[in-house]
Design brief:
Shape: globular
Number of strands: 9
Helix content: 40-55%
Order of helices and strands: EHEHEHEEHEHEHEHHEHHHHHH
Low-confidence stretches: none
CATH architecture of the largest domain: Alpha-Beta Complex
Number of domains: 2
Largest sheet: 9 strands, mixed
Strand content: 15-25%
CATH topology of the largest domain: Spore Coat Polysaccharide Biosynthesis Protein SpsA, Chain A
Structural class: alpha/beta
Radius of gyration: 21 Å
Mean pLDDT: 93
CATH class of the largest domain: Alpha Beta
C-alpha cells in the first residue's frame, strides 16, 4: 500500500521543517510520498522546502506564484499524487513517530473501507464525550455524521480514487466540511481508530482561521455559499434521518446571510423551494435591508470573537 501525504504551505518558515521531519523520521520501512504545495508564500518557506527536498526523494514539491488558497493547493497535490490513500497533514502539525505504521497496520487489518479516521491529540477531551469515539475503534456511518454523533477534526486517510471525484471548492479557502460530508456519503462507512497519529499546533491564529469570522462581506458571501451547498446536497438526507429542526435552522441561517450579501434572488429561491415560515428575515427582505443586516452580523461576529479571547 502506498500513501500520499498532502501538505499545503503558506508562510510557515517558522515550523515547516518540524512538519517535514515528522514524516521523514517515521519508524519502519514505509512506502510514502509527501506532497508539499507552497501557496505563494512571501517568506522563505519554499526555499526551505526546496533545500530539504534535494536530500529526500520522497518529497515532491510545487509552488504557486500567487496565493490561491489551501483548497487549490490540496487539489493540485491530490491530482498529482500516486498513492492508494491520501493523508492530509497541515504545515504546522506533525505526525507521531509511529503514525505511518499505525495507518498501514489498520488498513491491512481492516481493508474494506474507503475512509479511515484517526485521533489527533487536541481532540481527546471531545472523544471522551461521545460514546462511539470512546472506544478503541468503531465503525461510523453517514447517518452518524448527519446526526452529529461525531463531528469536527480527525486525521483523515482517504482512498485516492474516491477523493479525486470530490475536489475541494477553490472559490473560498475554508468550509472543506462540505466535501468531507460528500465523502462520508459516498463511502457509506468509515473506520475510526482511537490511536493518536497527529499532534496539532495550538493557538495559532492566521488568515485562514480569521475567515471563519464574519468580519467582512466576502466572509459572509463565502459562508452563504457553503451553507447553500449543504442544503442543496444534503437536505433530503437530513429529512430522512429525522433531523428536521437542524436543517430548518440551517435554512434560516442561509436566509439571513443571503440578505446580508444582498443576494435577494437566492433568498427568494430558497423561500420558494423549502417553504420557510415568516420571520424577521421576511421584513428584512421585503425592505431590502441587506446593508443593515450585514452590519448586524458583523457586529455580532466581533462580539463573539472578543468573548472567545476573554475565555
Amino acid at each position: 500500500m502506498r500513501l500520499s501525504i498532502v501538505t499545503p504551505v503558506y508562510n510557515r518558515e517558522d515550523c515547516i521543517i518540524r512538519c517535514l521531519e515528522s514524516v521523514t523520521n517515521q519508524k519502519g520501512n514505509t512506502e510514502i510520498e509527501h506532497w508539499i504545495v507552497d501557496d505563494g508564500s512571501t517568506d522563505n518557506s519554499y526555499s526551505i522546502i526546496k533545500e530539504y527536498a534535494n536530500n529526500h526523494v520522497h518529497l515532491k514539491t510545487h509552488h504557486f506564484d500567487n496565493n490561491k488558497g489551501v483548497n487549490a493547493a490540496r487539489n493540485y497535490a491530490i491530482a498529482h499524487s500516486t498513492g492508494d490513500f491520501v493523508l492530509f497533514l497541515d504545515s504546522d502539525d506533525i505526525l507521531t513517530e509511529s503514525a505511518i505504521l499505525t495507518i498501514t497496520k489498520t488498513i491491512q487489518e481492516n481493508p474494506n473501507f474507503l475512509h479511515y479516521l484517526f485521533a489527533v491529540d487536541v481532540r481527546e477531551t471531545y472523544y471522551q464525550t461521545k460514546e462511539l469515539l470512546k472506544k478503541a475503534s468503531c465503525i461510523l456511518t453517514y447517518e452518524n455524521w448527519i446526526k452529529k454523533d461525531a463531528e469536527g477534526d480527525f486525521a483523515h486517510v482517504i482512498d485516492r480514487n474516491m477523493l479525486v471525484q470530490y475536489p475541494f471548492c477553490e472559490e473560498f479557502r475554508i468550509y472543506e466540511e462540505t466535501v468531507i460530508l460528500k465523502l462520508y456519503k459516498h463511502g457509506k462507512r468509515q473506520l475510526f481508530s482511537h490511536q493518536i497519529i497527529m499532534e496539532k499546533e495550538r493557538g495559532r491564529k492566521d488568515a485562514v482561521t480569521k475567515e471563519y469570522f464574519l468580519f467582512h462581506r466576502k466572509n459572509i458571501h463565502a459562508k452563504s455559499i457553503a451553507i447553500y451547498e449543504i442544503i442543496s446536497s444534503f437536505y433530503d438526507d437530513y429529512i430522512k434521518y429525522g433531523e428536521i429542526e437542524k436543517v430548518k435552522k440551517t435554512i434560516i441561517k442561509y436566509l439571513y446571510l443571503a440578505i446580508a450579501d444582498e443576494n435577494y434572488g437566492g433568498y427568494d429561491n430558497m423561500i420558494l423551494s423549502k417553504k420557510v415560515g415568516l420571520g424577521l428575515h421576511t421584513i428584512l427582505r421585503k425592505l431590502r435591508l441587506g446593508k443593515l443586516t450585514r452590519y448586524g452580523i458583523i457586529l455580532l461576529s466581533n462580539i463573539k470573537n472578543r468573548n472567545k479571547k476573554l475565555e
